[in-house]
Input
Amino acid sequence: MRELLIATSNKGKFKEFELFFRDMPFKILSLRDVFPEGIEIEEPGETLEGNAIIKAMTIGKRTGKLTLSDDSGLEVDILNGQPGVRSARFAPGSDVDRRNFLLEKMKDVPDDMRGGQMRCVIALYDPERGDKVRLAEGVMKVRIAREPRGDKGFGYDDVMFVEETGRMHAEETTAERNKTSHRGKALAKAKEILIAEFE
Output
């Protein structure tokens, strides 16, 4: 059975990946499995695609393992696509600080102009096959709520009303999120690529 290394330190995100790939013929590894002392991965890319590729290739080359990495961003229409690639660095502090910063920036924005999307780009890199990287992308349309609701998510999940489900993203279980989320849609495409090319 091949090993698949998920290059994320985010426990919530890893849980989603692990659940999604549970029926796949791969042994799923976390960064902690490979780097028990921890590892910092730079994200200098100017795009989600750039960061996903950099992370996958950096970790893949260091470990020699088939590596999957992702980068996701919230793209708010009224903010010209911000925070986008800077979603995790939109404001200093915690997820709550960044969420509150977003809500403050949008406090005067009317309900019909609070649209946006979450976009996820996944990169798959196999160091045994040269420098070829495969990409998968998923998009979830959202509306930014005026106050947080729900306790099942992370990041901006508790202020994102999902158009497709009619619920707040943080009100959905991991299994429910995997069906309709930006990451779930990208993972479904990545799963097809893994079966076709990397099994």
